[in-house]
């Protein structure tokens, strides 16, 4: 039996499928508590595990800053710029392999890929503790960079695939608070493990690498067992929940078809021509020069105040704790009001003020206060700039390209920070801090440019200046992505 109208013909199967879809839609759309339950189910499965894994990633990356104050340089006979080179060499494979890694995670189960990466860099950190000379430490740092390269962009890619645009920044902030958790733990573990100096015939810096590398190897098992896949291939939601959630995401992203889309080389090259993708790289570079400088060199700067190695390590912890709390609160506020640009500008300005206090003042306590402003200002910006750029594009290919390209550019900031803070510039470190301020000024200009352009383009669409694109076929309109006249950029 069929039902005919003037334009369409439906069979019983199509009518039944449509009725089921309407019923599922009504079930969740008319019950916000039930919809919130599904969203929380996803949050608890995805965010805490990624936060834990990336905490270990960041901890293993910056723990060399804590190791440096526990006889690392003297034991390995390092002089001059040797320490800076060891810090720098990590970023070379990290930068080169981030975009290729997003190709891999897009094609295999994320839990297999992330578990493999975690095991690889955990073993590399552990082996660094056995280094007998600078060459051994350099080799370990290269392998840490190789394995860690896929972790950060892959996690951002996965998070960006699971949430709607107005929900994204707060989740990214919760994920990136792992930087601050790692900063707190790094100071505490650096002080505690470093105090094992001499135990078993190993220096304090070796114990830092042994214990933290071993923790990461254990965490690899958790990733292998529990990390979820992309929404289209997920299994922890019921069929009804999954069907509803995919339709919910599709309304936010016209490129979703119900099947996981694969990144292509041609699509990536096309995405790299988009100014919004390029802007993501400039913004994250502007953030990371300061973020890495604070993470790696803050303990060394604090020792120039006349404070002991133990005190310098311990006092990095409260700075990061405050930064983490403030960054999450600002991210929640940003998602609530659906605004990004004004918070980015505020974060850059606060951080610049803090850096000026550290550079220009001579009183140790006041300079330490400057670290608070510098840290929470820049860590406000970190989730915002990546999340904002992900908000401005549609589709797996562009989102995967944005996250990988932005993070790759950010690691150039790590290289810059590694060479602009030589110990000879102590105690004020004017060249290094001035470099951080200069890049944040670049960030301010870039934020203002994107904010103005997106506001202007939204006005054009509100005025109907892009409605001629509606004359394209449905298939061609789907390919428009964020160029579709119904799409509005986040401001």
TrEMBL record:
Keywords: Membrane, Transmembrane, Transmembrane helix, Transport. The keyword Mitochondrion does not apply. The keyword Heme does not apply. The chain crosses the membrane at residues 46-64, 84-105, 112-131, 137-160, 172-193, 205-227, 275-294, 314-334, 341-362, 368-390, 402-423, 429-452. It is a multi-pass membrane protein. InterPro entries: MFS, MFS_dom, MFS_trans_sf. It is found in: Membrane. Its main location: membrane. Pfam families: MFS_1. Residues 46-461 form the Major facilitator superfamily (MFS) profile domain. This is Major facilitator superfamily (MFS) profile domain-containing protein. It comes from Sporothrix stenoceras.
């Amino acid at each position: 039996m069929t039902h005919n109208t003037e334009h369409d013909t439906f069979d019983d199967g199509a009518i039944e499928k449509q009725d089921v879809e309407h019923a599922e839609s009504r079930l969740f759309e008319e019950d916000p508590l039930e919809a919130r339950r599904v969203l929380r189910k996803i949050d608890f499965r995805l965010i805490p595990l990624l936060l834990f894994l990336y905490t270990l990633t960041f901890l293993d990356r910056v723990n060399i800053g804590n190791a440096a104050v526990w006889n690392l340089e003297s034991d390995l006979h390092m002089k001059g710029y040797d320490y800076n080179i060891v810090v720098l060499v990590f970023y070379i494979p990290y930068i080169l392999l981030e975009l290729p890694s997003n190709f891999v995670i897009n094609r295999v189960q994320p839990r297999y890929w992330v578990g493999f990466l975690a095991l690889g860099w955990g073993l590399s950190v552990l082996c660094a503790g056995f280094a007998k000379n600078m060459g051994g430490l350099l080799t370990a740092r290269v392998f840490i960079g190789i394995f860690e390269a896929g972790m950060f962009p892959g996690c951002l890619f996965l998070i960006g695939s699971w949430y709607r645009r107005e929900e994204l920044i707060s989740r990214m902030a919760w994920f990136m608070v792992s930087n601050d958790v790692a900063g707190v733990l790094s100071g505490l573990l650096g002080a505690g493990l470093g105090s094992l100096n001499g135990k078993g015939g190993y220096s304090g810096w070796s114990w830092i690498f042994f214990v933290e590398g071993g923790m990461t190897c254990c965490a690899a098992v958790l990733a292998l067992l529990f990390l979820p896949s992309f929404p289209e291939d997920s299994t922890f939601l019921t069929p009804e929940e999954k069907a509803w959630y995919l339709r919910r995401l599709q309304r936010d992203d016209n490129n979703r078809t119900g099947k996981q889309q694969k990144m292509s080389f041609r699509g990536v090259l096309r995405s790299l021509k988009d100014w919004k993708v390029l802007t993501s790289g400039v913004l994250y570079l502007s953030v990371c020069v300061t973020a890495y400088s604070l993470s790696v060199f803050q303990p060394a700067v604090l020792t120039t105040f006349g404070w002991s190695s133990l005190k310098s390590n311990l006092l990095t912890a409260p700075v990061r704790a405050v930064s983490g709390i403030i960054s999450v609160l600002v991210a929640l506020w940003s998602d609530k009001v659906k605004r990004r640009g004004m918070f980015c500008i505020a974060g850059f300005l606060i951080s610049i003020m803090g850096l000026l206090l550290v550079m220009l003042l001579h009183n140790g306590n006041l300079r330490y206060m400057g670290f608070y402003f510098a840290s929470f200002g820049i860590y406000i910006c970190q989730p915002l700039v990546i999340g904002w750029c992900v908000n401005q594009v549609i589709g797996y290919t562009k989102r995967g390209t944005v996250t990988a390209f932005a993070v790759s550019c950010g690691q150039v900031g790590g290289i810059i920070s590694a060479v602009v803070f030589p110990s000879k510039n102590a105690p004020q470190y004017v060249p290094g801090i001035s470099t951080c301020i200069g890049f944040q000024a670049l960030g301010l200009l870039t934020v203002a440019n994107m904010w103005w352009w997106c506001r202007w383009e939204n006005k054009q669409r509100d005025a109907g200046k892009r409605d001629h694109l509606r004359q394209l076929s449905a298939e061609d309109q789907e390919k428009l992505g964020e160029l579709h006249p119904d799409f509005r950029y986040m401001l």
